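REQUEST FORM: STRUCTURE PREDICTION
Request ID: SP-0412
Submitted by: Lab K.M.
Chain count: 1
Length (residues): 301
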Amino acid sequence: SGPDKEMARALPWLIFAATLLLLASIKSSTASRMAKPGCQETCGNLTIPYPFGIGQGCFYSEGFDVSCENNRVFMHNSSSQMEIYNISLAGGQTRVSTFIASKCFYSNSNNTDGWVSSNTADFFKISTKANKLTAVGCNTLAFLGGYNEHSVGAGCFSMCADKQSVDHSGQCSGMGCCQTSIAPNLSSSNISFDDRFDNSEVRGFNPCSYAFVAEQDWFRFEASYLEDNKFTEKFNNGVPTVLDWVAGHENCDEAGNDMSSSACISKNSHCIMSPNATGYLCTCSDGFAGNPYLEGGCQGR
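STATUS: Completed
RESULT:
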């Protein structure tokens, strides 16, 4: 009977300890949840936080719908050919793959002249702070035309008369590669080449020119990119481009902090203006972490 008494005395403590463990696990699972309840949260190595989501009812609005195909995440679906590499809730940014425009001049007259255009959904813009227009080639003038309530444009020129005049420092200095800033709040863009310049004079070492909008800190120029099709062979899945996104175009006073009109629906969350785009984002209040776009998403640390 001695051991039975000991067990009877210990039982309430065991139940209490088990309850504490259960509460702790419920709290941690709530704190770590980033997707809407009942929705797929990960695809491959990528966490997909709401307002992004896979499938009907799992995303905030058009543009935030993504697909998971063969452990890869795409904007809308793979037909967009915009693979998502990263989603930042705090910064309101997502890193996606975009196309490369190319123009080639071959001695057999089998010449090509390509352009690339893109359009973003309502709450998304091509980031002016994070990206640069980059052109690779000799005797190459590339343009980025676009629209942000105005028709805007930018261009850069790269010149190298022979192989010896190509810059080998890795920088885009205008000798084999050039870069320039792009206009803010672009919702559509078109990359093209000026027809007055081509690779006919330099085709022996540089038959093709390329142009793209990519994350400025990502690209490092290599002189070998000028040879044959080495550039497109290396980057056949496109280049990484940063998109800025917002939860709404209003400012925080207009959006309000009440649940009926604001996307910031978690307790202990509030609205902040995006540092990169026109509109607002949501963030957890000091001392809280998680997803401010979900009910109960911000949990105490």
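NOTES: Residues 154 and 296 are 45 Å apart (CA to CA).
Reviewed by: T.R.
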